[in-house]
Design goal:
By secondary structure, the chain is of the alpha/beta class. The chain has 4 domains: 120 residues, Rossmann fold, CATH 3.40.50.2300; 163 residues, Rossmann fold; 79 residues, Helicase, Ruva Protein, domain 3; 44 residues, Arc Repressor Mutant, subunit A, CATH 1.10.10. 42% of the residues lie in helices and 13% in strands. It has 18 helices and 16 strands. The strands form 5 sheets. Strands 2-1-3-4-5 form a 5-stranded parallel sheet, sandwiched between helices. Helix 4 packs parallel to helix 6 and helix 16 crosses helix 17. The radius of gyration is 25 Å and the shape is globular. The two termini are 35 Å apart.
Length: 457
């Protein structure tokens, strides 16, 4: 039996949660505000778990969580943040301050029971809050999304922000890997330092070493002066190595040495430079497969993949498509001469049925193109004809992003996309989705289970 503190100003929700927790065999303590809760905690033993609402009278939930983390006896108490409207900011903010979980109301009894069992069985210490940057300001990169897949990404970024460990971001092209890296940087204690991005695929192999580590005067033809590399430029901050899977093997060995020793030697010099840099790497390639093929070092993969972060493709985040589309339209209307445009119902239905092989980048491009060419303020299905115009897309054309995949993986991705599309069109009605796909309902269940969609779709 555990003692659970519940902090929420919504009387009905608080009382319902108290009743649920008590029915599960635990004792409860309730408070309507953060100030009330902190006052009670001064005269009572630390609880085993705290449920904390995000929106409270007076200090909000994040401020209360920060206060809890400043009290030695409460620093490791698991805190579950609650919110009626999850956003990337409040999710990342909660997780970076050491919240155990972040839930969206309403929360079912089974979810509460499973969560409490996980909390009470692990007895894991929550990390200290440490020194963190302020909340993201308008105009700063945001990881938008309300789907469960994106909420998981936001939570992992929040947890990673409290460390300086190397992060490896994987995902298809266009899923927002650099945005995730920038959000992680801004949420970390290094936010005041520089964020330096390097696209390893865009720099010729013979110049990559100089680009990363710098060079001395006369190090090679054309080196007329000493030049700092990107590692030095990122000192005290974050170095983002995009498309690290395209790095040549010889350069991989040198990067491994830097990650191990935290020192660089500029090309053509004997000067050794200490660097305090958090490395965040990203790739759309399958590095494990590259290791098996001998084109990527296994020891480097171990060094990079300390904290893995996989960015889900847009076709697996159907719930995020329309909010993202409206966000891009809002951004396009930020200029003084631009009028805000909106999506019609038929346009919305179209957008959620598409597979989006180019992911979020393709969606942003589609919004800009349709907005620029549409004659009126309401974007209709016809304004997105370029997305499904078969006249310019022959039947034997391989969709973008599929050409480099092994046949089995390409077929699996296409099957997953078609099932998600059918479920979106039928509002989750699996029998109707099976009919649209031309298969039996049992066959649909079997395929969904093999693709790992049984619980998410």
């Amino acid at each position: 039996m555990a003692n659970i503190l519940i902090i929420d100003d919504d009387d009905a929700f608080r009382e319902g949660l108290v009743e649920t927790v008590q029915d599960l065999g635990h004792t409860t303590l309730a408070a309507r505000s953060g100030e009330d809760a902190l006052e009670r905690l001064r005269v009572t033993p630390p609880p085993d778990c705290i449920f904390l609402d995000f929106r409270l009278p007076g200090a909000d939930g994040l401020a209360v969580l920060e206060s809890l983390r400043g009290i030695a006896s409460l620093r490791t108490v698991p805190v579950v943040m609650l919110t009626a409207h999850a956003t990337s900011d409040n999710t990342i903010g909660a997780m970076r301050l050491g919240a155990f979980e972040h839930l969206t109301k309403p929360v079912g009894r089974e979810d509460i029971a499973a969560l409490l069992e996980r909390i009470l069985s692990t007895h894991a210490d929550a990390p200290d809050a440490g020194a963190f940057s302020d909340e993201a300001q308008p105009g700063e990169p945001r990881l938008l999304g309300v789907s469960e897949a994106m909420r998981d990404v936001q939570k992992r970024i929040g947890r990673a922000a409290g460390t300086s460990s190397t992060v490896l971001i994987t995902g298809e092209t266009g899923t927002g890997k650099e945005v995730a890296a920038r959000v992680l940087h801004l949420a970390s204690a290094r936010a005041a330092g520089p964020f330096v991005a390097v696209n390893c695929a865009a720099i010729p192999d013979e110049l990559l070493e100089s680009e990363l580590f710098g060079h001395g005067k006369g190090a090679f033809t054309g080196a007329h002066a000493e030049r700092r590399g990107r590692f030095e430029a990122a000192h005290g901050g974050t170095l983002f190595l995009d498309e690290v899977g395209d790095m040549p093997l010889a350069m991989q060995a040198k990067l491994l040495r830097v990650l191990q020793e935290r020192q660089i030697t500029p090309l053509g010099t004997n000067r050794v430079v200490d660097v305090d840099v958090r490395v965040v790497a990203a790739t759309h390639r399958d590095l494990n497969r590259m290791v098996s093929a001998g084109t990527f070092r296994q020891d480097l993969l171990y060094r990079l993949n300390v904290i893995p972060l996989d960015m889900p493709p847009l076709r697996e985040r159907v719930a995020d498509i329309l909010p993202l589309a409206e966000h891009f339209l809002s951004m396009l209307a930020s200029s003084p001469d631009a009028a805000r445009k909106h999506l019609s119902a038929d346009a919305q239905r179209l957008l959620v049925t598409l597979a989006w092989p180019g992911n979020v980048r393709e969606l942003a491009n589609a919004m800009e193109r349709a907005s620029a060419l549409a004659p009126g303020p309401l974007l209709t299905r016809d304004d997105f004809a370029f997305l499904f115009d078969t006249a310019i897309a022959p039947a034997d054309t391989i969709p973008s992003g599929f050409a480099e995949l092994p046949l089995g993986e390409a077929v699996e991705r296409l099957e997953r996309a078609m099932i998600l599309r059918a479920l979106a069109l039928t509002n989750g009605n699996r029998a109707e989705a099976a009919r649209r796909l031309g298969i039996s309902r049992q066959s649909l269940y079997t395929r969904m289970a093999s693709l790992g969609l049984s619980d998410s779709a």
